[in-house]
Amino acid sequence: MIGELLDKLTQRRTAKAGGFLDLAKRIAAGENVSVETADETLAATGKTPEELQAAVELCKRRMDWTRQLGTVEKLERERADLEGRIAEADGELEKAVEKRDARVAPMGARIRGIVAALASAKAARAQLRATCPDAELVAQGADLTARLAELRERAAFLRKESARIKSAETAENEAQKLGPCEKAEWWGREADRHRKAAAEAAKELPGVEKAIREAEAEQAGLFERMIAA
């Protein structure tokens, strides 16, 4: 007797719990549930509106998780297809690279041969110039080389002197900071000295650079004569 009563009580509570869960699922799915129906279910199951809200939110999350789970098979098929296409493209690329390598290999070998030949020709040119049998041309070449060295050294010095304009500006700034005083006058004299040196160098430099270009052209012509001697 008591056993039968307990079984029926368990079935009744299970049915009520199922009704509550069914209500939560319907609301989560967007079904239009009347207030009366919801109130009756809550009263029958002893649940509160807050518990219903929590159950609805859980149902929504579970529905979303179920939707995500349902896309797994499709996504895996798509991934496998893409990976296969990538592998196919990689194979085509590998074949293309092999074809390209086979095509350019003789060209690369020829280029290396040309580079070696050019280096050898350059060395031969230097040897022809160094072994020039014409003593007069050799002497002219030595004089021209020495003159070019002097001109280049002078040009380097003049470029350095031209840069003294920055020292002049620094000296002028120092003088302005100090105002009228003996130290400021010294800075002023330094500025004048640097500016004068820079101006003189800047004036001379173009002529020296021109002389270098002319000497280099003369040297190139002389070297050709030495090689052909």
Q: TL;DR of this structure?
A:
With 229 residues, the chain is mainly alpha-helical.
Could you explain the architecture of this structure?
The chain is mainly alpha-helical. The protein has 3 domains: 2-70, no CATH class; 74-131; 133-228. Helices cover 91% and strands 0% of the residues. It is built from 7 helices and no strands. The longest helix has 59 residues, at 72-130.
By DSSP, the count of extended strands is: 0
Low-confidence stretches: 3-17
Q: What share of residues are in beta strands?
A: under 5%
SSE order in H/E notation? HHHHHHH
What is the 3D form?
A: elongated
Rounded to the nearest angstrom, the radius of gyration is 48 Å
What is the count of helical runs?
7
Mean pLDDT: 86
Structural class: mainly alpha
Count of domain modules: 3
Helix content: over 70%
- Main sheet makeup: none
Q: First CA to last CA: what distance?
A: 136 Å
